[in-house]
Amino acid sequence: MYLYRAVDSQGNTLDFFFSPTRDAQAAKHFFLKMLAASHANVSRVINVDKHAAYPKAFAELKAEGHLPENCELRQVKYLNNVIEQDHRFIKCLTKPGMGFFSDLTAWRTLQGFETMNMMRKGQVQGVAKGNISGQITFIASLFGVAV
């Protein structure tokens, strides 16, 4: 299973996608999901790792008109460091668990990790970054737990 993740240049999580394959079709699906969820304009540059699936998916999306002509795909080592550093947080949480029993369990757990990571980075409306008591109150209100 593969976890696709998109972050902006400030490290804010844009979207994530869990896929059983890492091919052009999965990359295209992730790009479409990210573009649909993105409330901002499409970036002029998208940095990815050197996997061969990205250029094919990117070219298809440009040909179909989902991406503007001036948008550029860059597969340059080290330009992907923002996502790699952000992804490290998720890896540190999943490795000690020694895997998941099912794809559904993995997806639900990763959704929780990603959501908590976004809250920690201050991406939840009404909960400021670094406001631990606000984060605790917000989580308690989600689950109906008294604080």
What is shown here, in short?
Helices cover 47% and strands 13% of the residues. The chain is α+β, with helices and mostly antiparallel strands.
The low-confidence runs, each spanning 5 or more residues with pLDDT under 50, are none
Instruction: Describe the sheet with the most strands.
Output: 2 strands, antiparallel
- CATH third-tier fold name: Nucleotidyltransferase, domain 5
Helix content: 40-55%
What is the CATH class name? Alpha Beta
Computed Rg: 17 Å
Question: Can you list the strand order of the major beta sheet?
Answer: 1-2
Structural category: alpha+beta
Mean pLDDT: 80
Morphology = globular
Number of domains: 1
CATH architecture classification name: 2-Layer Sandwich
Head-to-tail CA distance between termini: 37 Å
Order of helices and strands: EEHEHEHHH
Task: Please provide the count of β strands.
Answer: 4
CATH superfamily caption: Ribonuclease H-like superfamily/Ribonuclease H
Tally of individual helices: 5
Key structural traits:
147 residues; alpha+beta; Nucleotidyltransferase, domain 5; two-stranded antiparallel sheet; two-stranded parallel sheet
Written account of the structure:
The protein is of the alpha+beta class and 147 residues long. The protein has one domain: Ribonuclease H-like superfamily/Ribonuclease H (Nucleotidyltransferase, domain 5), CATH 3.30.420. The chain has 5 helices and 4 strands, in the order E-E-H-E-H-E-H-H-H. It has a two-stranded antiparallel sheet. A two-stranded parallel sheet has the order 3-4. The longest helix has 18 residues. The mean pLDDT is 80. Keywords: DNA recombination, DNA-binding, Transposition. One of its GO terms (molecular function) is DNA binding.
